[in-house]
């Protein structure tokens, strides 16, 4: 397959509503490897819409344990299994992901046992080879070299940006993160940087819409995500070939348009720019 990145869900946060995008999932097709990064709601549909069989996955990465990044991981792996997956798929993620996987398997035990006994399926549990994700390992997926950098996403400690390299190409995904100058070094010279972004003015609209008055939510959003102007700053400092933006906060709220995003992103970035939409494919 050609080298490309598809953003299959570009909404920041777990709630979906009429008019919103889907939560995070990203397809990285690089050096012949098919890699899924995050498995928010819609990941399975998103892969199929990209023409990628669920059985074709070579590896899955979960950047951190917020539900908008792994709520569909179990259903996706289960569906890959019923679609014919019989080989082991490495699943890299923070500590705690193994509890999710064990819990998912337990919740679906009746169905899984039935399909093994009644349909002759292979056991599902060993098809996901859970492996730790951290800044110290260099991970190889076929021809692709993957490095992780701890980003800034409090209160989580295990939250990671990822850099994928193969055949002289580099793709960097910021994950969920506050502005961090180190991201520019991590993304230096990448062909494509996919970075999360928020409009600070929009955060108040999100809070008001939720009717969720607790001040902690506003504080969480502001201290753990990156203002759009700073996203442009990172891209410029890194000298990337192309900036694509995802994990929009707010997303699907009236009153915030592409022009608002572009105005902020363009304060420091005048290079190639993609405002992500669900299903957008960026060829490398
Ligand atoms: Zn998120
Ligand atoms: Zn998060």
TrEMBL record:
Lineage start: Bacteria, Pseudomonadati, Pseudomonadota, Alphaproteobacteria, Rhodobacterales
Pfam family, one: Anti-Pycsar_Apyc1
Domain Metallo-beta-lactamase, first and last residues per copy: 22-212
UniProt-recorded name of the protein: MBL fold metallo-hydrolase
Keyword Hydrolase: yes
Source species of the chain: Kangsaoukella pontilimi
Gene3D superfamilies, sorted: Ribonuclease Z/Hydroxyacylglutathione hydrolase-like (3.60.15.10)
GO MF assignments: 3'-tRNA processing endoribonuclease activity
SUPFAM superfamilies: Metallo-hydrolase/oxidoreductase (SSF56281)
SMART domains, sorted: Lactamase_B
Keyword terms: Hydrolase
């Amino acid at each position: 397959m050609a080298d490309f990145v598809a953003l299959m869900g570009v909404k920041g946060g777990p709630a979906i509503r009429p008019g919103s995008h889907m939560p995070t999932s990203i397809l990285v097709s690089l050096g012949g490897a098919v890699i899924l990064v995050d498995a928010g709601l819609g990941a399975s549909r998103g892969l199929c819409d990209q023409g990628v069989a669920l059985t074709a996955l070579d590896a899955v990465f979960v950047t951190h344990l917020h539900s908008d990044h792994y709520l569909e991981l179990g259903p996706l792996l289960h569906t890959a299994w019923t679609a014919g997956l019989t080989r082991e798929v490495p699943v890299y993620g923070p500590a705690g992901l193994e509890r999710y996987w064990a819990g998912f398997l337990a919740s679906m035990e009746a169905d899984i046992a039935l399909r093994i006994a009644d349909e002759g399926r292979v056991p599902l549990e060993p098809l996901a080879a859970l492996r730790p994700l951290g800044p110290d390992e260099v991970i190889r997926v076929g021809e692709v070299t993957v490095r992780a950098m701890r980003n800034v996403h409090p209160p989580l400690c295990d939250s990671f940006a990822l850099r994928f390299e193969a055949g002289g190409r580099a793709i960097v995904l910021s994950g969920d993160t506050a502005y961090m100058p180190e991201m520019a070094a991590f993304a230096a010279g990448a062909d494509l940087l996919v970075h999360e972004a928020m409009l600070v003015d929009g955060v108040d609209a999100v809070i008001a819409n939720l009717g969720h008055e607790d001040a902690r939510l506003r504080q969480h959003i502001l201290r753990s995500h990156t203002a759009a102007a700073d996203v442009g700053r990172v891209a410029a400092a890194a000298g990337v070939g192309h900036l694509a933006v995802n994990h929009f906060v707010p997303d699907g709220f009236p009153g915030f348009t592409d022009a608002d995003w572009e105005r902020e992103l363009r304060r420091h970035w005048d290079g190639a720019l993609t405002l992500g939409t669900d299903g957008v494919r960026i060829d490398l």
